[in-house]
Amino acid sequence: MARGRIRAKLRRSNLYTFACLRPTTQETEGPHQFQGPGYSRMVYCNQPHVHEKKPLRYRSNYISTTKYNIVTFLPKAIFEQFRRVANLYFLLAAILSLTPVAPFSAVSMIAPLAFVVGLSMAKEALEDWRRFMQDMKVNLRKTSVHKGDGVFGYRSWRKLRVGDIVKVEKDKFFPADILLLSSSYEDGICYVETMNLDGETNLKVKRALEATLAFDEDLSFKDFTATIRCEDPNPNLYTFVGNLEYDRQVYPLDPSQILLRDSKLRNTAYVYGVVIFTGHDSKVMQNATKSPSKRSKIEKQMDKIIYILFTLLVLISLISSIGFAIKVKYQLPNWWYLQAPDSQNFYNPLRPELSGTFHLVTALILYGYLIPISLYVSIEVVKVLQALFINKDINMYDEETGTPAQARTSNLNEELGQVDTILSDKTGTLTCNQMDFLKCSIAGTSYGKKASDVEVAAAKQMAMDLEGPDPELANVVTPKNHTTLPWETNGQELRASEIELEAVITSKDETDRKPAIKGFSFEDDHLMDGNWLKEPNTDFILLFFRILSLCHTAIPELNEETGTFTYEAESPDEGAFLVAAREFGFEFCKRTQSSVFVRERYPSFDKPVEREFKVLNLLDFTSKRKRMSVILRDENGHILLLCKGADSIIFDRLSKNGKMFIESTTKHLNEYGEVGLRTLALAYRKLDEAEYTAWNEEFCKAKTSIGGDREGMLERVSDMMERELILVGATAVEDKLQKGVPQCIDKLAQAGLKLWVLTGDKMETAINIGFACSLLRQGMKQICIAANADSLAQDPKKAVKDSISMQIANASQMIKLEKDPHAAFALIIDGKSLTYALEDDMKYQFLNLAVDCASVICCRVSPKQKALVTRLVKEGTGKTTLAIGDGANDVGMIQEADIGVGISGVEGMQAVMASDFSIAQFRFLERLLVIHGHWCYKRIAQMICYFFYKNIAFGLTLFYFEAFTGFSGQSVYDDWYMILFNVVLTSLPVISLGVFEQDVSSEVCLQFPALYQQGPKNLFFDWYRIFGWMGNGLYTSLIIFFLNVIIFYDQAFRAGGQTADMSAVGTTMFTCIIWAVNCQIALTMSHFTWIQHFLVWGSVVTWYVFLFIYGEMSPVFSGNAYKILVEALAPAPIYWSTTLIVTVACNLPYLTHIAFQRCFNPMDHHVIQEIKYYGKDVEDRHMWRRERSKARQKTKIGFTARVDARIRQLKGKLQKKYSTLGGRSTLASS
Amino acid sequence: MSSGEGSSQPSSKKSRQPKYSRFTQQELPACKPILTPGLVVTTFILVGVIFIPIGLLSLSASERVVEIVDRYDEDCIPSDQEKTAFIQSDKTNKTCVRSLTVPKKMQHPVYIYYQLDNFYQNHRRYVKSRSDKQLRNPENEDLTSPCEPEARIDNKPIVPCGLVAWSLFNDTYGFSVRGMNLSVNKKDIAWDSDKNYKFGSKVYPKNFQQGSLIGGGKLDEKIPLSEQEDLLVWMRTAALPSFRKLYGRIEQDLEANEKITVVIQNNYNAYAFGGKKKLVLSTTTWIGGKNNFLGLGYITIGGLCLFNATTFIVMYLIKPRPCGDPSYLSWNRNPPGN
């Protein structure tokens, strides 16, 4: 792992003033006193065999997230299948079809059901198999385990037992929850990255007990034994209570000794530990909730339609059976040719109620065609194919990680088209967790050239607007700005191209830059290559660089192969500073216990000099202090205090003469902050010997003090020193966003989607990212809700709650009173406040406020809160939510949301495994939603509507015919026609509709994000439309049946004088149905590839082919259909003319409807289709561009909104200028 | 992830990249027809223009058909007797003479039909009560299971079994014009497929109408089923409770105003279920018998289409919408904020 690297062995606790100092004795804290339930777990360290017997046998480290196993698959999956009402009905019908009451043969009922259920189950099995493979991948990971006699060997994770001693190496995941015994550092410290658990990016320090520090090599575990008594498995990530009994002494354990499964060891070569919780007992797995089976809104609505159809089915069955009973009672005795009653009471005039009951069963089966059995299976097939298109989309393939998008469950494709709110994780989703040093302000001068994207785009947009349709005019108006416009050089090109954000994507110009250095995107020749020596204020610049290279807690690692240093820093910012310092010529190269060595290219850039700085004290960073300082002595013996910290903190501590640059620096900081850069202010102070010595004494006293207030004391002492500072400058670090994130957010906002950011990070970071993603912008009113009630109140909890309630109420009031239509609000709330805000009595108040705000950022939220917020949004607004995240901490929210999207291609699979869709980059979300979601929604909606239409059209003809057969349950069609109707003759066209239909092409989808709103507004699957289709089905059935019956009433139907028998009428009627429904689907489609043509018209042809072949088969099979086409129907002109008139009559109302609707009340996609059809977009580019920009939803967030706001601001200024100018000119003229 | 997996990634990288094809990228060439006003009007007019002539043609074909319908069930029974008893009795004389007038010249062939009303040949119990296998092959004469309750008699199979055959229509008609007998051609009234394939030429009626209950007509046991065309016609069950079936043909022209005398053997019991019996003489054209509905239907639909076209044109003139006019986009129609 660490091949070719050299690392210094350090006692790291020396670097930490606050967190890692340990009182020398343990007397203050005794072992935990606990007994009884909840604390029963006993772990015999290094004696895993003890845990093989009850009662100490705990769960193995094998994890399984599958729904089924081999034994349970069949019963469970079958049970799942028959939970669908329709399937249950068909099962009943199939069973009943074995009895003589059935109107059809048993095979014709059982075969389709078996097919449908079998197919669905196969899909389930496949999906579960994939989950199993994922689990196995994790289970088969190897870790080093003590095998006895001090020998360690590799063993797969799943074979790990409680009590095992494991050795985990750097950058490896912990295989289970482990008690830290010792680490590669002498003082038993190790660093842990818990991004997978809580999304926090900075490393956490864990420390081993003093008592176990000695066990820091393999051999020492030969005879080690100890006992741990601790709490039972629970999902709480931040607590742990237990005692370690070792060497007849009891030591209390707390969370800082526990290494949790799925977190990762960082910056530490190796650690030893004892396995405490394995597998599903581990905290992260306890946190995992069963993945709920999700169903899309459309599917839920479809269930309601099925219920309606069931009602209809029961209704007509009742009518039919009552009619039958009446006929049986009053007329059947007269119908001598039926020889009633029969022996089985099916036709017994003496017991009509009994016969009627039997008939009810018959009718329920007969009219089963109303309920499309093939609907589920068709939808399943369609969804699998849609998912395939998602998986295969080359535009959602990430080159870097080599991962394509993946639809992990295909149930939710159409739900993608109806999303209203996106809840996003920050780290790893929006950002890459990489910091780039981008700009700095030194001694009042800002360095770093890159212009703000917003500025550029705003200026460009304004130029476009002014330019208008007449470039001449534009030139008259704009020349004033000409000299200052940065895009002037390539203005011509820009004018031709469009104001797309792509023009300002940073990545574009990255390509022509010199090879990118990780963590460093600074561009300014004034500072690079030693040029800074020519700048004014060289002293300050030197100091600035020194602060960067000295004020930190990182350690360097020499990569022997390349000769460069890499740095292991606690936070990525610090790493970025060190890289920046190195690039500027101040290479931090060595840290010893007391000194830091820096290779400085100063005073001459070409000859580096290694200088030693003695570190006297290190006052480290805590979230409360928001600053860190280092006190050191340079080679000349001067004592310096170098400090970096949050600007507000530093500014408060400046000395009077240290405020020289405060004004310009503040301005720069604001600029940086607005574009979402993370800023820190740097300052220094010179100390004289005496002053330092006095202070150091105090400090040492505080450091060695015993008791709980040690930290407080240290803080106070540190505070004394960090005063009278002199401001040097400020840094701006970019928390690097993933590629295309701002653009994607912009597009999503334009499509009318709301974006909430839920992050485990602290508020400042979250706000920075809010700016970087354009979720926040200048001029937006930020509503920060934080828990800050004074703890002195009698009931602190209540006080906090009241305060939060007040804040929410005030903010709501403020929004209500706001008059400016452009005003936008942003809600920022921290985790602690959220705890209260999510309580039942306040949550809707909170939700209402949040919904009124343009953007919502929740910071410091726990995984559970993420899930709770998601649930609140989902249930409170009743709209579709989508959660996107990458880590295990997002699993809850991913599972809770209507759609969960996982970011794949990064470490940790938990999020992906819990998700419904996985994509490699956040930016693919746009394509996933706006194109695939939009299409899938429309496809599925149209498909289901059509399905109901066709089955109603077909099923009702059976009912009408029944009325003409004395309600006897006879069908006019051959059994085979009926089987084929759903399975072959009409299923493929509808599948092609569901798979290939496109209302507009993918580019247009992207260009007109407003089209997406058709989904969330549910324009294509509302009840109006559904009933419309049902009405159409009813109409079609009436036309088909009655036209046929009247035309074939009693007279001869061909010149040969023959009259039509039942099979002739039935076959003609069926021909009409096939034509009518297939023409209907052709009218429904707006996109014909050869596949659609082939399947639609192929279905019609198939029908004739089938009829021909069926007719040619022996009459034993074909019965009355024998030679029906060749002999009876085809030669009869009336057969063909009936088909024609019925088909036209059936489709005429629909055609009229769509023709009139499109012409006089067109929907957006109609107009766009026409524009495209006539090539107007090419002819009139200006119009096309204008409409595209208008098609954006009016949003208050996103890049565009920000540009708009900026333009408003600029225009306002211009107007002022003009008016003053105008005023002057009038004065002049007068 | 462990380093082991990391190293395996590059190799799998290539294979995971989706291959480009127009199919998987959903970029297949497609025609995207659009209902432009021009197309709509053209379609409607075209349908109208095609349908109305078809309708007129059908109507004229139907008008050329000459049809004589004579209901005889009421008149052919003595009014003083109980109808069912009369018809069921062996002893009564069921001969009945009717006189028909030819309204217009009827060109040969003139088809003779009997029409039954309120007879549920499409009743499920009735339809199922037959054995196609038995009808086809003498070896299958024992396959009578679907034929209940007319399957067996004294445990001997009935051929042809089942209610359909058992209830065979058995009225007979004799025709004469001006005292001259008109010959009735009863050949080829059934479908060829029935004669040649469905009904076996070696299957002879057996034990037919031997039970205590006598249904309808009897069959000559010496003639194979395939040649019993009346049975074949009857066994093609009708779709509706009111139906005509071909009885025979008169192979000569009937002049207008000629009087035809029909001698009917009124055997069939339609009285029990209140059915009507009619004798029908009809000529045919290419659309078959008299069928005005089809022609009228075509004319109606065609007319509707023309009406639609007109309405569309009028509406379009009042409120024209140029195709692809962006002002109809929703964001232009209801500007946000209103």
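qc> Confidence is low (pLDDT under 50) at residues 1-6, 20-28, 468-514, 1225-1230 of chain A.
qc> done
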